[in-house]
Amino acid sequence: MSRKTFHLNAFLMGVGHHEAAWRHPRTDAHRVLDVRQFQNLARIAERGKLDSVFFADTLAVGPRIERNTLAVFEPVTLLSAIATATERIGLIATASTSYNEPFNLARKFASLDHISAGRAGWNIVTSGSVDEAYNFGLDAIPEHARRYERAEEFVDVAVALWDSWESEAIVLDTEAGIFADPSRVHTLDYAGERFRVRGPLNSPRGPQGRPLLVQAGSSESGKEFAAHRAEAVFTAQRTVEDGVRFYRDLKSRLAKYGRAEHELKVLPGLVPFIADTVEEAKALEQEFTDLISPDYALRQLSSMLGVDLTAHALDAPLPPLPAESEIQGGKSRFTLVKELAETEDLTVRQLIGKLGGGRGHRTFAGTPEQVADELQTWFEAGAADGFNIMPPYLPGGLEDFVDRVVPILQERGLFRADYESTTLRGHYGLDPVESQFAPRDSRVSA
Amino acid sequence: MSRKTFHLNAFLMGVGHHEAAWRHPRTDAHRVLDVRQFQNLARIAERGKLDSVFFADTLAVGPRIERNTLAVFEPVTLLSAIATATERIGLIATASTSYNEPFNLARKFASLDHISAGRAGWNIVTSGSVDEAYNFGLDAIPEHARRYERAEEFVDVAVALWDSWESEAIVLDTEAGIFADPSRVHTLDYAGERFRVRGPLNSPRGPQGRPLLVQAGSSESGKEFAAHRAEAVFTAQRTVEDGVRFYRDLKSRLAKYGRAEHELKVLPGLVPFIADTVEEAKALEQEFTDLISPDYALRQLSSMLGVDLTAHALDAPLPPLPAESEIQGGKSRFTLVKELAETEDLTVRQLIGKLGGGRGHRTFAGTPEQVADELQTWFEAGAADGFNIMPPYLPGGLEDFVDRVVPILQERGLFRADYESTTLRGHYGLDPVESQFAPRDSRVSA
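^ Those are the sequences you sent over. The predicted structure of the assembly is below.
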């Protein structure tokens, strides 16, 4: 077996992950509306040979209007603009299985894969906020289990649509007037519980066969879905022990789906504050914490927990919370926040400070060496195949990581010195996928 | 009243509008998969100071798999990539009101408007082919009248979502920690027959307020919808007399919606074959006609008419056709084709030849001077506010129009010598739109 490889994704959000990033002098909040900001960030990440950039998304404003920036751009539209400004880095967009049609979603990602010459990835989400439900004709969040059932069926259809064109389907025989070989373009005639789709997709097979499939929910349903479908998982883990437990849990579920461990990469999030000394790094983090607006943070916390805390005292502990089984929104984030507050015995004000950097993802303040040590420790302990780097402020936080931490990882032989592939699947060590409808002898062997 | 202005849109499709374009040596059919082809075409159109480029779309492969190319790219994703390669030209994408959710569509066009700094346009279609219905869980095309009812409600919701952010909503007061003024960000609480959407949109107001609204159906419902909603109309007209009649008809419907005539531009299609002499231009057209594959053309014609003609004799006239009122698909294209065959007494083979260039749009072969004369004649007769130029082959057909015809139009004082605006709405002589929710005193007066 080849040596385990090390992967890095840059998770980009507005002018940084810290909820007060837009107020800090190291950022320019006007840039949340400027596509050039995001093209520039992707170029910085590409300079560091990172595997991919990733954009989250929710289909509602949520509690953010007054006090915080928002994800202005629809991610696929944004990544198409970024694709033309970069050459190698992977491009991962979030899209919801609850509020899209499979045909439209499959088409849009096929377009992005063609436009980027094989760099498209789809972060599959089931949309767990009630604000999203209200924008699509519903009065409540669809039940957690029902959302995952729909997601399973949705992915079946989307994959079949991408597979509806075999890679050899396009003939382009101008003499005979044959554009495509109809025996290699397939209708699905899919008829399931939630979808009926004839196909084929109106886009030929993309360079990767299908986009990289990514997932980020860590509930029981989320882990099972990831084991079945995902090729990369973003996850929030507080300690290396938690990380190892999650990693082993997820990898152990792969065999029953006939999958090998290397076919799914586990990427815990890290919010790094980087400076020349640990004292400076901690002081920098504190500058951001001091800018948190408690009324916004309370609304944000209420939204994460699905419990209204806006009238709750800041210096009291959390009120009693429901069991995870009663939660219909995002279960894993709920439990993470609840456990953090309980195990560290935090007041709401302290909890808000801890969550400000990355909404529950691990925050780490230190020197470039210390950040590299931290990543190496997790990687070598078997808690990670790589990391989801969440710069607290942008572009500076990404520049510091790329220009100061990545060279250390490269020097230690942990991370690639240059790209060895042209596609996102290739960066993550995966082969292009042949159509499920292709004759066996034409399939690429794995 | 100011002098009537003259507008030009480039309607781009694959390697050209002629159905056999991909087989002709003047094209390279591989380029239908290459985003750089489309970026290059848009740059050529921008060199000619054209108002806009436009991409059609259908949500199915239709009868095209074997014998013809297809629209590979989802138009908004494609136009985002084109936006970053151009600076001034407008970018119009087709999207369906029958098979999208208003929230998703409004978001995507808001993104494109931000990414392009105010150059987004939406060609509103109701999707009249049964192949599309099959990809979205239906067994038949939804009734023509129902599709237009849904389109009316859909546009109401989309416009309200774009209006949910006033242009002054973003405050960005980093000191006080105020990102947006909540009194200028509006929920809709829209509850209609087909949609319930709370809002607001998760994207601040775009530079144009809302995208340019474009429409292309010329049936009775289509014309009424256009008079109510559209700011530009693409239409297929066979003669200048037909064109004048359509133009007067459409403009006369505006007053009842409180709209002025200049608020809707009528743009008939033209497929120009351009050469140094009329003989060479006609010979060039014949080269393309000779490459038509009759079996593909019969399937294409069957799809346009909603009647299976694949077993019909090529040298016989059309069989008796149903009345327009019985057609549930695209009514105006049906009637155009039927009337063309009847008035010119054509066999199916002859009809196929006539339709090959632009699916019923007027084809014209001549010198650059003659093409310019033709456009001037229609414009001055009151049949057009400008034209939807449909190059039969690409990029050559567009280059000839831009480099040989546009300079003549500029010399005659008909067409702009340079852009006078930075937005698509500006090119078409329209103001940015203020939110319907904005206080009266903050609205921009027209």
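Chain B is about 35% helix and 15% strand. The CA atoms of residues 93 and 196 of chain B lie 25 Å apart.

Shout if you want it in another format.
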